[in-house]
Amino acid sequence: MQETQPKYALVYQRLRDKLTEGRFPVGSRLPTEEQMSSEFEVSRITIRRALEQLVSEGYVNRRQGSGYSVIALSPPQQNCLSSFTDMVFRSGATPTSRLLSIREIVPANPLTFPLPRDLVDHGPLLQIRRLRCIDDKPAMLVSTWLAKSEIGDVRPEDFPETGTGQSILRILQEKFSLTWDAACEEISPIAADSEAAQLLAIDVGMPILKQACIAFGKNGKTVFYEDLLRAGTIVFESFALRRQAPESIMKRPLND
Amino acid sequence: MQETQPKYALVYQRLRDKLTEGRFPVGSRLPTEEQMSSEFEVSRITIRRALEQLVSEGYVNRRQGSGYSVIALSPPQQNCLSSFTDMVFRSGATPTSRLLSIREIVPANPLTFPLPRDLVDHGPLLQIRRLRCIDDKPAMLVSTWLAKSEIGDVRPEDFPETGTGQSILRILQEKFSLTWDAACEEISPIAADSEAAQLLAIDVGMPILKQACIAFGKNGKTVFYEDLLRAGTIVFESFALRRQAPESIMKRPLND
DNA sequence: GAGTGGTCTAGACCACGAA
DNA sequence: TCGTGGTCTAGACCACTCC
Asked: Does residue A12 sit in the same domain as residue A97?
């Protein structure tokens, strides 16, 4: 795991760690680019590249002539590559995971199996189903599909139900050395079937969101497929081309 | 409108235009960075900045040692700042817009009105409701909210029902000089009420998506608020931190 | 006017991919 | 091996903010 990382990535991580540790409170100013440049002993260009990532993720805001200010200690993005576990922890609540099942599935007809083709072609698949909860209240039903040939055997003990280790993204990276760097996601409205309704503690037929996500590796191959069912709302923030977080914050909820 | 733009933005536009005009077919290779550098008479750094945007938007893919290849002639992103009109045109279908109503609304109680506070504080609001269709089939019900003080009077003639001019984003920019550069979006599952069901030609109670979007100006102030109701699916692609579009393309639908 | 980010350049060396 | 993108630097000048 000790790969050499580019400087900008290291600088980014160190800055982000400082942020999440609370070294820079929300609203405070970051040092100037020049100061950070000498602190980290890299050029201003490299500092800027690290800062760009922080800006695009919604941690800090930047204004010409004024500098960088902290707007959040955790990123607001909710997509299938952001960790539900981390998000819930940062919000101050406690996430838990109930492992529902681990199944090995051999698609009868690979051509019609409703998963990305190159994943199905790997042979037997593993399906891991988990119920994610926030403060013990059901929040999300997750099915993760992987090629068995890529990760070998998995056991229930590989999927902790509490703590930071319950993050499937971390489990896949750290226990099974799976990595990815892009994804494609679809969001659809569906009606809760009886199983989803029971697990999510809602009524059958209630409208819920289905998030279907494919994660791709560097070579463009599918690394895993995941679908999530959730009753709540998904938030995307500051996704403009030239991303820049707003100075003002919303004063009231969007939905009446 | 003739503001001076940075070089990288101009290069980006010229490259994107070449793409959308079909000068570089899908699958073809772009010239090398060095070649483009001399063609556009800018440094390699500047070329890279323009290319980065094309990569992050999903137009082209890049591979070290191999070069840039074209993967799409239009961006796959579907968010409230991407033009529905353009998306439909590029897919080969014909978009139309039915203007349902233009209303002036003075919130009785600004504190409880379910819109961003700084928008409500501007005084009277304009609400523009339109039904967007694809090949005359209803696809999306859109309500756009603006501060009347920012744009003055609007007339039905300002909202063409056909052609590229029907894009509300273009209308706001070109006819009313509104600009924005960031946004925040929420997606929720709801059940279609009788009005939405009738307009979208679906059954009452069917699950649909509600997209609520706030667009922010450079100063962080809300420029407009928009909510969309749609029965279909929303797609987000290649939104990883280090964005990189996959080489392989999905072979089958995500939903069974 | 001083400070700060925004843009741009020329040049260097490295890592990966393909022939 | 060679071409290509990936990373990094020092230095310059401009535009904006704030005093």
From this structure: no
55-84 on B, CB < 7 Å from strand D: 62-68
Q: Please report the beta strands in B64-181, taking only residues with DSSP state E, as ranges in sequence order.
A: 67-70, 95-105, 125-134, 137-147
User: B interface mutation test: which of A55, A105, A187, A202 has the most B CBs within 10 A?
Assistant: A187
Structural domain contains residue B78 = no
Residues A141 and A40 in one domain: no
Same domain, A207 and A101: yes
Residues B46 and B109 in one domain: no
Which token pair is A33?
A: 């680019």
Of B82, B98, B114, B149, whose CA–CA distance to B225 is shortest? Answer: B114
Cβ-contact A40, A70 below 8 angstroms? no
Task: Classify residue B235: in a domain, yes or no.
Answer: no
CATH number at residue A36: 1.10.10.10
Measured between beta carbons, the chain A residues lying within 8 angstroms of B180 are 240
Q: How many residues does chain A have?
A: 256
Q: Which of B183, B219, B248 sits opposite A118 (nearest CB)?
A: B248
Helix H or strand E segment including A34: helix A33-40
Q: Write out the residue range of the structural domain in which residue A147 sits.
A: 84-230
What does each of the 256 residues of chain A score in pLDDT, given as a tens digit? 345 678 888 898 889 888 888 888 888 888 888 888 988 889 999 999 898 888 877 788 888 888 888 887 777 777 777 888 888 887 778 999 999 999 998 877 767 777 777 777 778 899 999 999 999 999 999 999 998 888 888 899 999 999 888 999 888 888 887 877 677 788 999 999 999 999 999 999 999 999 998 887 766 678 889 999 999 888 876 554 333 333 322 222 222 2
Quick one: A54 and A166 in the same domain? no
Strand D within 7 A of A66 CB: yes
